[in-house]
Amino acid sequence: MFFLIIILIISQLISFYLIILLNAKIAKFKDLEVRQEQLIREMDDAISVYLIEMREENDRLIKELSKVNQEEPSSKNSNFEMKESLEHSNSIDIISTPSKDVLVQPKTILPNIAKKAYQQQKNIDSTHQKETIKQDTIADTFENKVLELYKTGKTIEEIAKETNKGKTEIELLLKFHS
């Protein structure tokens, strides 16, 4: 009888130990799930920001095109230019001459309105190009620094402390470059 009680106590201790182990594994999975949800939210935010920037860029292009369209001297010229640009965008154009119709190979010509807007934007972009290059080199050096630190064997936490960035940002950067 005494032997049976000892076996029961030992089996209860083993079962408590197994329950604690299972609980620890479940906690790890929950923590992993929370981190994955956080990464998903961050990626959704990044995509949302990208889409907003694209929308703003499209709105700016529309404004530039409408501004250029308003600057046209007469509506007849703009209508003629639009017709001309549409003719040039067809796969094969037919040019009418007094003697006969001639088939001409297509030319990739932008409408004059879009061309003028493009030239204006090109002028604006050239002024901002130097700033962009500086920002790109800063981003490249940051990425290179993070990658070098990771290659030397430092943990994500150490890299985050050294670069004064968040662990998640470092993890994402390393995942994009893996």
Helix fraction, binned, reads over 70%
What structural class is derived from the secondary structure elements? mainly alpha
What is the residue-averaged pLDDT?
76
Low-confidence stretches: 86-110
Radius of gyration: 33 Å
The spatial strand order of the largest sheet comes to 1-2
Distance N terminus to C terminus? 63 Å
Share of residues in strands: under 5%
Total E-strand runs: 2
How would you sum up this structure, described in words?
- This protein is mainly α.
- 80% of the residues lie in helices and 4% in strands.
- The chain has five helices and two strands.
- The chain has helices at 2-71, 75-89, 112-151, 156-163, 167-176, and strands at residues 93-96, 101-104.
- A two-stranded antiparallel ribbon has the order 1-2.
- Strand 1 (93-96) and strand 2 form a beta hairpin.
- Helix 1 (2-71) packs antiparallel against helix 3 and helix 4 (156-163) packs across helix 5.
- It is elongated and about 105 Å long.
- The model is unreliable at 86-110 (pLDDT under 50).
